[in-house]
Each structure stands twice: as structure tokens, then as C-alpha cells.
Predict the 3D structure of the following.
Amino acid sequence: MKTIIKNAKIYTLQGIKHSITIEDGKIIGFDEAQRAEQQIDAQGKTVLAGFHDSHMHLLSIGRMLSILRLQEAKSIDDIVRLGRQYILDNPNKDHIIGRGWNQDYFTDAPVMPTKDDLDKICADKPIVFTRVCGHIGVANSKALDVAGVTKDTPNPNGGVFVRDANGIPNGILHETALGYVQSIFPEISEAEIEEYFRKAMDYVSALGITAVQTNDLFEYNHDKVLGALNRLEKNGELKVRVFHQFTYENEQALDMFLEEWASSELFSDRHRLVALKLFKDGSLGARTALTRKPYNDDPTTCGVDTLPDEKIKSLGLIAKKHNLPLIVHAIGDWAVAHTIDIMAAINDAGNPLRSGIVHHQITDLDLLKKTAEHNLHVFYQPIFLHYDLHIVADRVGKELAATSYAFKTQMDLGAHTSYGTDAPIEDPNPLECLYCAVTRKDLKGNPPEGFMPLEKVTVAEALSNYSEESAYAIRMEDRLGRLDIGHYADLVILSDDPYEVKPDDIKDIQVLMTMMNGEVTFDKLGFAEP
Ligand SMILES: [Zn+2]
């Protein structure tokens, strides 16, 4: 089918065009007199390449839309109230899963809830509420009971059962200790996974997203995740391109998985494996990011090393054997430094597979230079500034904070950088994320001059990092990420032109229509209706 979008303001490499012709999912021309089966009148609005989130968790977004959401909790009392209400609304659930609380947003005191608080919600059903970061959670006494966690239970590798003065676990769970307790819950079924993906794709396509690099696939769920997505693709229900940043921590299992799947014909430009994703540390908010010096606001800790360097190397080499890059979650400066060394050791010269670092938050100039020198791709989440600009100096000190979240310097040093949101850690809204990159302010507009204002990027740079550079990360820049002839017709129609509104107003721009592969996936005003 041929489609024309006319009466539009279309940003292309060859300047602004006014109509775009699309056939079989690809762009075939601009400003041509063409007949088409479908005509879309954009009413003079701005058309840009579709947003491509280069690191998120699509399945978790769907799950988040299906469990108790705790983002709004402003106190521990709120958490208790929301939990009680959820039980009243869902009397048949035999266990309660929630996510999204953040003690730094509490208006009374920034204290994490413990099992005693959750016991007030319910004593006879297990409850686990994960913090917004996903690296910390809290369980009630029933959940600890069922999981067999007592005073005598040793901490699992890479995790901590936080304890009171008497050594009794208080319900707070760090890293693998969280997984240890969550393993009491029944595994989600393939049908549930399919439903979560459907919900998540509806949600993100309404935000203008046409592609995601997503970390949903693990050793324990790969059959179900790939099964669900292959079925959705076959049924024409894939509303966004799904590129897997998959996680495997066992060499043999990884090798077997890649033998079976890496070159599978089931994969396409809409759905495929793109990178092995491993974790070197936790999060800054939870003080589990791995730092070279003890935390400025808690000298007893330097964070948590979640996977030894040697292990990351051997897993990365297996991915390389199958022609896939390694990307590593590294937030603290120690984690970033070690990840650079690991990649320098295993990558071929010039980094042709485009291995990279996800988050790359706490850095000094030397680390930024090394990242560029080794040509490592950097996956940034500018929306993290909304929260982190208020805590980073407390966590790591003023000096290191000043060279962290160095979006502009890292680009100017020559590294490829792409943007994303790590949703559901943050909302996947690309316009809010672009606003943070361009203004360096939180969503309330603070600080007025922006945090480290020299690190502001231009609107053009920010948009490129949300489309072209995301495609670059997965070696698809020849056909994805730009409005250009021969490229996939992945695009958005926006209410306002981000190049023309005040930077502060970028976050308020509305997505009016989203198109992926030439198909309309979201249409707020009925542009595509005949
Ligand atoms: Zn993530």
C-alpha cells in the first residue's frame, strides 16, 4: 500500500519537506506528486523520525501497568494505604507485588519501609514492594517466612538481607536478595507475558516510540518471551520494533542460547537479539552503584560489585563469537572504569560490534576520554537528571558530580551516545527526556540555569541521539532512524515543533500520531481516518 503524508513540516537531511511518500513500510520520496491509497493530512504539524529508546525494559512496563503502582507514595503511610486498598480491590490475589516507591520523594522523612510497615498491610499474604530503581525491595514477614529467610540465613552472593541491631532481617532486600525472596512467587505465564507486551506497546506507541532496545530476556524466561513476541509479530501486533538486550550469566547456557537463536530466521528488522547486557553495579539512589571512593553521604559503603570482571569478559567473548556486542550497566565511576578495561581487552580495534556502557553516570574527564578513545557506545538516560541532579553531589561529592552525566563532553570527545529512559525506572516519555537533555533541569524547571549547563545538548543533537544514534548502536543506521529515502517509515507527528518552542516547553509537546513501518500505531486526532 502507498501512503502520503501531506501538508506537513518534515525535517530531513535535505532540509524541510512538505510531503512524504511511503510504500511497503519504507520512505520512497518527498514532495512528489503521487497518487496513494492512503492520504494523511498533517495539518501543518511537525514530522520527525520516530523515537527509539535505546535502553528500557518493555516487559516490566507492561507488568508495571498490571501491578500495584507505588510511584505516588509520599510517605510510608501512603504505601500502607495503597497496599490495603489494592487488597480490597483485588481480593483474589494470594500475593501482592508492588513497585515504584522512592523514599527520597517522601515528604515526612526519607526512610525506607521495613517488614513492620508492610505487616500493617497484611500479615497472611506475602508482599514484596520493589523500589523504583529495581535494585532494592522490601518484603513483609510472611514473604520472608515463605522464602525461609531467618536470622541465620547468610546473604546471597551479590546481595544483602538488611538486618536490625540484633541481626534479624528487617525486610529490606538488596540486589540478589530481592530475587531470592521474589522466587517464592509463581512464574508468569507466556499468556501473561504476551498481555504485558501488548499493554506496554500500546503505552509507548502513544508516546511516539517506534523502536526499543529492551532488557526483558533472561536465562529463565527466554522461551516464553521469544514465543510471545514471535506470536505477536506473526499476528501483526508488534507496534514497536523490539530489540533485545538480553542477560545471561552462565557461559554454557549463553553459548547454547546463541547457538540456537543468534541467526534464527524468526528474527527480522522488527524483532531480534542485539546485545548481551550484563550488570557491573546497582543504582546511585540506592547507593549500590560501585564507586572508587566511599559515598560522600555514607562512608561505610562503595556500592555493590554485582559481577566479577573475569566473568563479564568470558561472557562477552561468547557474545562476540556470535557476532553480538556486549553492553554493561555501569553507574558508579569504579564500575565505569572496570567496564572500559574489560571492553578494551575483548573488543576488536575500533569496536566494530559497537559494545558500550549503559548509564555511564559517575565519570571524571579521564573516563570520558577513555570511553571515546576505545570508541565505546554510551547509552544515556537524560531523564535521570530529574531525580539525580538533586542527590548526585551528596552521593559522590561536588567535584565528581561536576563531571558526571557529561552528555555534551562525551559527544564532543567523539563517542557515539544514544538516549533512552530505562523505563519503568522513569516514565518512557521521550519529550520529557529530550527536555532534560536540552535544559539540564528537573521537570519542575529547577535549577533555573540547569545542572552543569555546559553539558546541555542542542535540540538537533538530542533528537539525533533518540533516533539515528539508537539505530547506530545496533548497526541499523543504514535503514533506521532518519527520514530518508530507503529508510523505514518510522515517524511521529507532533503538536509543536521542538526546534521552535522554548526549551522549557519541549516536555509539553504532544504526540499526535505515531507510525511504525508505514503503519499507524497511534492516532490521537484521527489524522489517518479516511
Ligand atoms: Zn535498565
Q: What stands out?
A: The first strand starts at residue 2 and ends at 6. The pocket of zinc ion is lined by residues 55, 57, 215, 422 (CB under 6 Å). The chain has a mean pLDDT of 95.
